[in-house]
């Protein structure tokens, strides 16, 4: 996926957020957290704005990679960039914390969901 994005950029093909989202999602599914994050962090240089889907895929890649701290940094980045936080966003971050035995952080995120008026689902409580 990273090679595809790089090849597209080098061949002057127009990259867009959707293409990057697909590449980040592919990296997440393949367990390639570092490559997913590389694509995400290269987007502003390409004048592309990451959206909720972009961050959700990157946070999920962090979860799969056991990197709860980076998942939380991405959540903060979303808030600073005014990107919409959704239930799936929090669930992925909560899972990242829970799977790394960071229960206090997971419970803090559940509280943040409530403050942000984001809808809870059964999976939210299963993740925590």
Which SSEs are present, and which pair or pack?
Layout: H1 2-10, H2 17-29, H3 33-42, H4 52-64, H5 68-80, H6 87-99, H7 103-115, H8 122-127
Helix pairs in contact: 2-3, 2-4, 3-4, 4-5, 4-6, 5-6, 6-7
Mass-distribution shape: globular
What is the overall number of helices? 8
Mean pLDDT: 86
Mind summarizing the main beta sheet?
none
State the helicity in percent bands.
Answer: over 70%
* Elements, N to C (H/E): HHHHHHHH
Radius of gyration equals 15 Å
Strand percentage:
under 5%
**Cα separation of the termini:** 31 Å
Low-confidence stretches: none
Structural class: mainly alpha
Number of strands: 0
Could you write a compact summary of the structure shown?
By secondary structure, the protein is mostly helical. The chain contains 8 helices and no strands.
Could you characterize what this model shows?
The radius of gyration is 15 Å and the shape is globular. The chain is an all-alpha fold and 128 residues long. It is 70% helix and 0% strand. It contains 8 helices and no strands. It has helices spanning 2-10, 17-29, 33-42, 52-64, 68-80, 87-99, 103-115, 122-127.
Which short descriptors sum up this protein?
mainly alpha, 128 residues
């Amino acid at each position: 996926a990273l090679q595809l994005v790089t090849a597209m950029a080098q061949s002057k093909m127009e990259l867009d957020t959707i293409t990057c989202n697909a590449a980040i999602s592919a990296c997440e599914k393949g367990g390639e957290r570092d490559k997913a994050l590389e694509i995400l962090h290269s987007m502003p240089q390409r004048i592309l704005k990451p959206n909720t889907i972009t961050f959700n895929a990157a946070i999920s890649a962090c979860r799969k990679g056991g990197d709860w701290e980076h998942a939380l940094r991405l959540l903060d980045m979303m808030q600073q960039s005014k990107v919409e936080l959704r239930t799936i966003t929090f669930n992925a971050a909560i899972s990242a914390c829970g799977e790394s035995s960071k229960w206090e952080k997971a419970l803090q995120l559940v509280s943040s969901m409530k403050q942000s008026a984001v809808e809870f689902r059964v999976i939210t409580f299963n993740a925590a």
